[in-house]
């Protein structure tokens, strides 16, 4: 069975600092992995995804994530935080064959201090 | 191309009433997924539908909840005899027929049961 664990329900960084949001997964089959961002009272927007191929995945807004099979991790990073990055971030793994059938982590709220 | 449209955005129901949540997928999408987000929780998969078919309803509560995606018109998530614990944000996502691309999320319906 698949599962996702996001370490840290709240992360606070200063503007311009490195952003690191952690995600570990458990999957009995090769996973497809996703990061979504949710702004207050909004739906989810896809940041990036890993399916196959290159393990370092670049997404929108300067975010990237690296799939590490040996560590069962898919951590999200951004070199320099911007105030507009403040939001909640969700890591997800596919549950079935379709990329819409997902198991989500509990989310990490990112705060960015001026 | 309009995104995934959900209505209403906010819905208030008294205990015991019925709630009907609507989701119009993106143009050309024939796969629909419903998720529920409780406060301080990630999204939980409820049901996966294709036109006129329920593909996976493993996340649906056994009673009071039902979903449909008719040949014409939006997908409907129906909750009968609502209780306070049904208060949550309900998100719909859609993906193209081949199912091999990511799903796109709507902005959600926030159900409050009073």
Mean of the pLDDT scores of chain B? 92
Q: Termini of chain A, distance in Å?
A: 41 Å
Structural class of chain B: mainly beta
How big is the Rg of chain B? 13 Å
First-last Cα distance of chain B: 36 Å
Number of helical segments of chain B?
0
Strands of chain A, count: 11
Unreliable stretches of chain A = none
Tell me, rounded to a whole number, the average pLDDT of chain A.
92
Helix percentage range of chain B: under 10%
Strand residue percentage of chain B: over 45%
Q: What portion of residues of chain A is helical?
A: under 10%
Specify the biggest β-sheet of chain A.
6 strands, mixed
Number of strands of chain B: 11
Structural class of chain A: mainly beta
Oligomer: heterodimer
- Give, in order, the helices and strands of chain B: EEEEEEEEEEE
Q: Which outline of chain A best applies?
A: globular
Précis, in short:
The complex is a heterodimer of chains A (114) and B (114). With 114 residues, chain A is an all-beta fold.
Descriptive overview:
The complex is a heterodimer of chains A (114) and B (114). Chain A has 114 residues and is mainly β. In chain A, 0% of the residues lie in helices and 54% in strands. The chains are: A mainly beta (114), B mainly beta (114). Chains A and B meet through strand 5 and strand 10 of A and strand 4, strand 5, strand 9 and strand 10 of B.
């Amino acid at each position: 069975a698949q599962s996702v664990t996001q370490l840290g329900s709240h992360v606070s960084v200063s503007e311009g600092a490195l952003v690191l949001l952690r995600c570990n997964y458990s999957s009995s089959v090769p996973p497809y992995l996703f990061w979504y961002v949710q702004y207050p009272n909004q739906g989810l927007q896809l940041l990036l995804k890993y399916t196959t191929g290159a393990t370092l995945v670049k997404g929108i807004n300067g975010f990237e994530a690296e799939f590490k099979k040996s560590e069962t991790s898919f951590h999200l990073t951004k070199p320099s935080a911007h105030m507009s990055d403040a939001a909640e971030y969700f890591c997800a793994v596919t549950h079935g064959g379709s990329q819409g059938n997902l198991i989500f982590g509990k989310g990490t709220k990112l705060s960015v201090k001026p | 191309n309009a995104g995934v449209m959900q209505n209403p955005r906010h819905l208030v129901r008294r205990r015991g009433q019925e709630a009907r949540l609507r989701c119009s997928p993106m143009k050309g999408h024939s796969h629909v997924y419903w998720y529920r987000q409780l406060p301080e929780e990630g999204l939980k998969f409820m049901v996966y539908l294709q036109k006129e078919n329920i593909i996976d309803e493993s996340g649906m509560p056994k009673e009071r909840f039902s979903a449909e995606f008719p040949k014409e018109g939006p997908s409907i998530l129906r909750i009968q005899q609502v209780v306070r614990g049904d208060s949550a944000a309900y998100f719909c996502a859609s993906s193209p027929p081949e199912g091999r691309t990511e799903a796109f999320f709507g902005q959600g319906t926030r159900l409050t049961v009073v």
